[in-house]
Write a structure and sequence with these properties.
17 strands, binds 4'-deoxy-4'-aminopyridoxal-5'-phosphate, 15 helices, 418 residues, alpha/beta, 7-stranded mixed β-sheet
Amino acid sequence: MKEKLNKKERTSPLDLRKIREDFPILSRSVNKKPLVYADNAATTQKPKNVIHRLSEYYSDENANVHRGVHTLSECATEAFEESRQVIQRFLNARSTREIVFTRGTTEAINLVAQSYALKQLKAGEEIIISTLEHHSNIVPWQIACQKTGAKLRVAPVNDSGELIFEEYEKLVNKKTKLVALTHISNALGTVNPVQKLTKMAKEVGAVVLIDGAQSIIHAKIDVQAIGCDFYAFSGHKALGPTGIGVLYGREEVLEAMEPWQSGGDMIKTVSFEETTYNEIPYKFEAGTPNIAGAIGLSEAINYFSQFDLEKVEQHEHCLLDKAIERALVIPNLQLIGTAKKKSSICSFVVKGVHPNDLGTLLDQQGVAIRSGHHCAMPLMSRLKVPGTARASFAFYNSQEDVDKVFDAIEKALFILAA
Ligand code: PMP
């Protein structure tokens, strides 16, 4: 009866067979074994329509955007600006003026650090981040603090890898000018209550940036509901191309900011005596943008939007539950990151086994996972591990994939123990 119930609970609400057909790479082999891709937190695979759209753009529409009077330039500009609209609607931003194209999350955060933090922060003021952050959401703030004399405060996590709300609450005060927190931890999968954390920061008038690199295709994103001033994400972790990302910025905040890079497109007029800047978001998009990338990203968002997010979340939870269930019966395996609210990321260590050795032995079996510090060295130190092995799943992964990952882990551990 119990087994029947489990089986029933695990029936995916998604048509996985059909979805997997949309991702050509999922049917290739690696090391003569069918690929099992469980490194989605590093980057996601791309559906056919995104691959096709990139090829179509370059075959048929390629031209530089803005100011061109010829047909192709108009065509490329239209597609590029339509992409901005797709992203605006997806994030529920108020206007396309709030959508800045960047190279990715890292560049988006650096933009805010340079254009906002460096200009606004004064000595003695404070920036709050958390122990959960990716290096991309630590180092830009460290630099901003070094240059301004502001202080970096770090909200701690508990042993499960959850941000301790009471400790965060203690850090938020009148000196807090900026709060930069991740939505979902890439190393552990912890989901932060971003709305609640943002609300607290807004009560003292701080500006809030949410690092959405891991959340964009795993959680509902509504920047107005979250109430943040900035939201950053990367296209490549959301079924889109590499080299494109987005910074959502609340209009009033973006308006008040200076450009950070200069050159073409970000200007209105240039003379040797004086230069005036373009309006937002173009003020922050110096040089020829990644036109194909933006178009590919909107295709990815359109593709993903056809799915019911609740079903996606339900499916991914089942994958995580199964992964945890399989992990827990492996001798000497310790799960790292056991937050109550987690996305489909399973990080772990096995006593006496280097995560890289495990990763290599899995690769030989066609299974892709990641090992190392996941660009979160302070978090690894806090949890007293040099690194972890991390299997991260997306909605196109199946229960069978999870089984294959853990079958491969068991086999690898058997080989290492021999
Ligand atoms: N933040 C988080 C939480 C991430 O997972 C990543 C990528 N691993 C980044 C920031 C940086 O993203 P990108 O390298 O695409 O700029």
